[in-house]
Amino acid sequence: MVRVARVAANSIAEELGIVPGTELSAVNGRALSDFLDWEFLTADDELAIDARLPDGEEIIYEIERPEGEPLGIELEPPTVRRCANRCEFCFIEGLPKGLRKNLYIRDDDYRLSFAYGNFATLSNMKERDEARIVEYRLSPLYVSVHATPWDARRVLLNNPRVPNIVEQLTRLAEHGIQFHCQMVIVPGLNDGAVLEQSFADLWALGDAVMSVAIVPVGLTQFSHLYTGESMSADRAAGLLDVVDRWSRRALVERDDPWVFGSDELYLLAGRDLPPPEHYGDYAQIENGVGAVTSLRERVRVGAARLPRLDGRRIGVVTGTSMTPLMPELLAQLESATGASFVLIPTTNSLFGPTTTTAGLLVGADIRRALDGRDDLDIALIPAETINDAGLFLDDEQFIAVRESLPIPVYPSYDFIDVLSLEGEGAGERAA
Length: 431
Ligand code: SF4
Fold this sequence. Notes:
By secondary structure, the protein is of the alpha/beta class. It has helices at about 10-15, 35-40, 110-115, 125-135, 150-155, 165-175, 190-205, 235-255, 265-270, 290-300, 325-335, 365-370, 400-405, 415-420, and strands spanning about 1-5, 25, 30, 45-50, 60-65, 75, 140-145, 180-185, 210-215, 260, 315-320, 340-345, 380, 410. Helix 8 (about 235-255) crosses helix 9 and helix 12 (about 365-370) runs parallel beside helix 13. It has 14 helices and 14 strands. Helix content is about 30%, strand content about 15%. Strands 1, 2, 3, 4, 5 and 6 form a six-stranded antiparallel β-sheet that branches. A four-stranded parallel β-sheet has the order 7-8-9-10. The longest helix has 22 residues, at about 235-255. It is globular and about 65 Å long. Iron/sulfur cluster binds near residues 83, 87, 90, 92 and 108.
C-alpha cells in the first residue's frame, strides 16, 4: 500500500475525488508495495486503481487517460531501507550527537540508488528485490562496492553476512542492468592487491560497469569505529597511479577512462586535476569526482557574461580543501567584473578540522566567518551547505544566519549563478 501526500490541482486525480491520505493498494490487480510499483504499474493508460479514502470508503477507480497525461498524485515519501552493515568508516558514525534525527538514518536502498543516485551496497537485498530490479529495469544503479574479494568486503562492511558482490552484479548484468560503482579506500584494507583484484573483477563485468570512483576514507573528529590509518599524500598519489594505469587501459580498449579518482585524492596528492573532457558526462560528480573541474569550466565560460561590478567587495566563504584552488578562480572573476574578491577560508566547527569540505560547513561557521565583515558588500557561501528546507547541518536556519550578519549573504553553486544577477540588484533577490 502507498499513501497519497498531494493531489495536483485540475488533475485526473482531483477530478476523481482522490484526496491526500487516500491509500492505494493495487493497480490493475497487482499489489502496490512502494513508489516503484506505483511508478511502473501506472505507466499504462488504462488503469484500475484499488483505493481506500481517508473516511474508510473503498473504491476502484477505472481510468482511461489521454496518452501521457499525468495522474497528478504525489505519494508520501517511502520508508527508507536501513543499512545492515556497520562500516568502520561510516560517515554517520562520525556525526556528533544532537543533530536532527534524519541525519542519523543509514539508508542502503537500491530503490533510492535508482531514483536519486544514492549509493547502496546491495547487502540487504532479497531475491524478490533482484527480480524487481530486473522487471522494472532499474538501471543504472549506484553501488558501493568497496572491494570485490568477499573476505575484504566482509571486513570493510563489518558484516559477516554480506553477500558476494561479484555474484550479485553478475546476475543483474546478465539481465542488462548497469552500474556506477564506488570504492571508499581505507588504507591497509582495500588498497594494494585488494584494489587490483576489485578493478579486475569489475572490468570483467564489461559494459555493465559504467564507471568506478575511488574515494578516500573521510573521518571526522567524532569517528569512533575506525581503527585503520588515514589517507596521506603518498597514499593518495599511490592510488592515483593505480587509477591512471587502469584508466589508460580503459581508454585504449574501451575509449573511456572508466575509473576515476575523486577530486579529494588529487588535492591530497597535490596533483593537477584532469581536464573537463576526462570526465565525459560527469557521471559521478555528486560523489566528488570532477566537481572542481566542472566548477572551473563553469567559471571560465560564465565569466564572459558577468556584469561590471567595479568597486564592489565580495566575500567568498569556503572550506579549507578548496582554499588553494580559489585564487585562480577569483582572479578570473575579478578580471571579468572589476570587483575585489576576499577569500574567507573557514574551518569546520562541528566536525572538526579534518573535515575540510566546503559543503559541510555549518551555520555557526558561516556566522563566525562573516561576523562583523561590514567591509564587504556581499558574501557568497557554498549553496551545498543548505538543504531544501533552508537548514544547515547544525539545524541553523539560513534565513536566521543571514539576518544576523551585517551584509547580504547568498548561497552560490558556482559564483556565476549569483554574480550574473548582481547587476540587477542582489538585495531584491530571494536567496
Ligand atoms: S553501508 Fe556502511 S557507510 Fe553506508 S550507511 Fe551503511 S554502515 Fe554507513
